[in-house]
Amino acid sequence: MGRRDLLLGGGIVLLGLALRLAFFFRAPPLLVLRDSASYALPALDLVQGVGFDPELKRPPLYPLFLATGFWFFGEDLRGPLLLQHLLGALGAGLTYALARRLWDRPAATLAGLMIALSGDLVFVEHSIMAEALLSVLLVAALLAGTGVRSARPIRWALLSGVLLGLAALTRPGALALAPLLALTLAWLAPVPRHGRLLVGGALLVGCLGTVLPWMVRNQVVHGAFTVAGGSGEALISRTRRHDRGFGFDAYVVRGDAAHLKVDDRFTAARGWVYRQLARTDEAELIFRGLQREFGLSQAEADRLLREIALQAIRHDAGRYLLVTARMGVDLFLGWDKSLRGMWDTAGKPKFRDEWGERAAHVLGPPSAAQEREFPTAQALLNFHEHHRAGGLLLGLFLLGTATALSAARFRPALSTALVVVVSLAMSVALAGPLSRYRVSVDPLIAVVAVGGLVGLREVGRSLLRAKPLRRGLPRRLPAPR
Questions:
Q1: Is the pTM of this model over 0.70?
Q2: What whole-number distance in Å separates Cα of residue 453 and Cα of residue 202?
Q3: Structural domain containing residue 127
Q4: How many domains is the chain built from?
Q5: Do the beta carbons of residue 448 and residue 399 sit within 8 Å?
Q6: Which of 292, 312, 329 is the last residue of a domain?
Q7: Less Cβ around it within 10 Å: N or C end of the chain?
Q8: How far apart are CA 136 and CA 122, in angstroms?
Q9: Are 180 and 145 in contact (CB under 8 A)?
Q10: What angle, rounded to 10 degrees, do the helices at 413-430 and 317-333 form?
């Protein structure tokens, strides 16, 4: 990039930082009851010298990121949140750089501004949730991937793989993107056929080499060779909370022992799960109950829940696919977020019960000054909200994908579009339409959407180039004599 791009990108970063700091000093930390605790408590344990042992369903990078914030700024949730806002502003600059590599400067400027002023991203960055870190890592991985069209494609592919591995250590679903990116980058690299195999292999080596040590650790500690567990709990939530159409009561205990080929403890646990599913849709409470009532490990409880959910899905696969597709569209279009709903959560008694005495000092209700600033904080989030332009963004996203398919020079944008589609599809298929999963790919959506405008401009130029063919003709033929 040239000097003009550096100035534009730097200006976008500063604009994004100004918005984020204006919000940061007005709002209390925004927390999700159990999810935020499962990230923050291991980080506090590490800082306090207790050790580092996140739950099986939580990969390590985000708790380590939180611990870094606690080390620098003390045991205060505002420290990690400040780092997240700094990362968010940097993410707007990286979005500009990615769009600049794929399209042109005007499109890149628009994409960068959309992310710099995104209220959805500012909201997530002010929450103790992993998506703020994941968003930046995905943009960085794709930006590195564009380097495969340079003179050193293998180095760039390796770097892209490492960044994707870090994304998987933040959210394990990112690991499923590795084969997709390996294939697309190998296809896009301007090298001979054997060189393309090296490009795709370099990405896989970088990604797997990054996640493998943690997978080995989970095998030793939990007996599960995986980046993170939790798929069973997520699938139960997907089929019980987000879709009421699955009737788990139809499968009660018949044939359980033969199906599982395990001891009576698992058979009893399976029947207990079905009885609980008739009463509640809180998958995490059921997961904890399996450990408390039956002595199952985290890996065993998750495996049992996964089998129960998959049995329900197999029984009505058509409904599952149809509802998943509908959820995917709804998630892309988005919906309004409730700032007030999370504004004072940290001061509620149930949060203190969940976080425990050792973390009570980081919780507390918003101050009187913060309460007075609530209207301003809400207004700051309203500069640009995804759901207000969800239909337009969907149309432009499809146009941007078509533009990448239609012209060779825009072909690298296909990998970004595919990452968005696959990420959203996996999210709704495994966990349901949770808005924070879409927010993590909002920068990528913006990059592809501005490509739709580039495509419209190219069509307009083609039409204008066709007009001069008629200029030499007379407006009216002379009348016959």
A1: yes
A2: 34
A3: 3-153+332-464
A4: 2
A5: no
A6: 329
A7: C
A8: 13
A9: no
A10: 120
